[in-house]
Amino acid sequence: MFKKLTINFFKLLLFWILLFDFQRITFSLFHWRKFQSSTFLEWLQSFVFSIRLDLGMAGALCILPILFLSLKLISNKRWISKTFYGILVFEISIVCLIHSGEINVYDEWNHKLTSRVFKHLSNPDEVFRTAAWSSTFWYIFFFCLEIFVAWKGMRWLFKLEPMQLPKHWSLRILAFFSAFILFGGTSFVLLRGGFQQIPLNINAAIYSTNPLNNDLSINSTYNFAKSYLLYNRTDIDVFLPKMDTVVSKKLVAKLYTFPKKHTKYFLTTQKPNIVFVVLEGWSANAVGCLSDTKGATPNFDKLANEGLLFTNVRAASGTSEIGNSTIFSGFPAIPEVSITMQPEKHRKIRSINQDLKKRGYTSSYLFGGDLKYGNIGGYLMDHGFDNVIDENNLPNIPRGKLNYYDPDVYRFFLKEIKNAKQPFLQCVFTGSSHAPYDHPKHGKQKFEGVEADYMNSLIYCDKAIGQFIRKAKKLPSYKNTLFVFVADHGHGTPFNDSPHVGPFFRIPLLFFGEVIKPEYKHQKINTLGSQTDIAATLLYQLGIDAKNYPWSKDLMNPNVPEFAIHTINKGYGWVTSKGNMTFQMQSNIYIEDVFDSKIRNEEINKGNALLNEVYRYYKNL
């Protein structure tokens, strides 16, 4: 009994893998001209890097069929086999509908089929009026072709024969539950991608700096299902503070209308090497040079005293993937939205790496953990980073549960810097200040009580920064390198552990290096800004137009308006030089509001307007 069931389970997995690969072939043939920029080997690799997502999707599609195959351990009645075939045909139809639609829209959309299709299907008249006859023909042709191939494959692989059943019903029921738990559980593990901490996502199939190759590799059904879940979860129009479009546009235009040119250049050169150090969860409230908390960050404090420190910068959100996209693309966070998880949208925004590449810069990004989280790796590769390195590319040495220890990460990073072709953009993302804080511990821990583990981890991370800079100073490229230290998001501290209030989001931003003019060293800039403003601030110093970053402001500009917007869980915060508030949209309550009553409505309207306009911009990407 179990032998037949096991064989049929593996046949199911094989069936789906073969169908997915057949769909890749049909897609490639129809869009072959698009693959001219790729080598045959690059194209072939899509069939290798696709396996994990294909297995994940196959696992999901196997759960219902395996239920009815397991029921055959109880009874040989024909309705069970018929239901199995019926479910399989239904699933095949959905998979083929999605892929045949994707083949047709790819020329126009230049990305995989997503929940965007529901916007069009809500207006069927528009669909029929705008669709060319050729598109309709090819849609029907590919759907029929894939259905035909799948039907033939199903008939070839699955010939369900009666089983020899135990005489006692109790044994049959036991066999059924045992089989379904075993094979259903295996299907779920495949869907999750294994037992690792971070579940499977589309980043598992991304391998190329060419988005087309990645789109071929990413399983179409998996991508569409993920997009649909995001569509249901992030369609937050109903919760957004209501505001007239004309009014919101005027208010936002006023926020971003100010003289852009100035003469406050703090760099000695417009073409330095650039090193970004993205600090995991560093809160300004835990950093000595930015707060009353002393003793956790002496090395960073020393660097801050020698560099140009921005003291009033806010993180855009509370997660790493949004922090990274905000830092490099200057794109604000939106409640309940992770734009890195939506390639069809994040590819339409800019990254500073792309502008630097035009100036001859090489680029690299290194993280000691798994860049599948939040599809950070996919975002980086789609935006053309020459080299994207995570735990899968690093040597097998002792490490923490979540990632490699910071000293080792900096050691790997120094090798990348040393071997990089100049000018370069080299980026590293640290991890030892993230739970479970399982880095090596020596002696008695300095901090106790609330957030003690986090605070003590900063001591460890700060020491690693000091060692990194001392070694970096010995590199030939050091004298022409600008170091940018910035946190991906804030964190709770002994004095502020609420992720719903403004101070939680204040983070360090430090420019450091020999390329900073002497008159700007040891300075503190108190201008209020956000992670979104890093792009415009840096690019202005390099003499690069920041027009591709419409939401980013130059914090060195003496005319710049002081404001920042950030997200909380199903809400957002608005911070200006006159106060701040956080609003929980679903509950329709203000968690925090410290604006003076005389200006409260005016300030809150500005925040509402910016949120509405950013969301409208995102929806139209």
Task: Furnish the topology, listing elements before pairings.
Blueprint: H1 2-30, H2 40-49, H3 51-71, H4 78-109, H5 116-121, H6 124-130, H7 133-157, H8 169-192, H9 211-217, H10 220-234, H11 245-255, E1 273-279, H12 298-306, E2 308-314, H13 320-329, H14 343-346, H15 352-357, E3 362-367, H16 376-382, E4 387-389, H17 406-419, E5 424-429, H18 452-472, E6 481-487, E7 506-512, E8 523-525, E9 529-530, H19 534-541, E10 563-568, E11 571-576, E12 579-584, E13 589-593, H20 600-619
Parallel strand pairs: 1-5, 1-6, 2-8, 2-9, 3-4, 3-5
Antiparallel strand pairs: 2-7, 6-7, 10-11, 11-12, 12-13
Q: Could you walk me through the main structural features you see in this protein, from its secondary elements to its overall organization?
A:
The protein has 621 residues and is of the alpha/beta class. The protein folds into three domains: 2-233, no CATH class; 235-258 and 564-621; 270-560, Alkaline Phosphatase, subunit A (3-Layer(aba) Sandwich). It has helices at 2-30, 40-49, 51-71, 78-109, 116-121, 124-130, 133-157, 169-192, 211-217, 220-234, 245-255, 298-306, 320-329, 343-346, 352-357, 376-382, 406-419, 452-472, 534-541, 600-619, and strands at 273-279, 308-314, 362-367, 387-389, 424-429, 481-487, 506-512, 523-525, 529-530, 563-568, 571-576, 579-584, 589-593. The strands form two sheets. Strands 1, 2, 3, 4, 5, 6, 7, 8 and 9 form a nine-stranded mixed beta sheet that branches. Helix 2 (40-49) runs parallel beside helix 9 (211-217). The longest helix is centred in the first third of the chain and has 32 residues, at 78-109. The radius of gyration is 27 Å and the shape is globular. Residues 125-130 have low confidence and may be disordered.
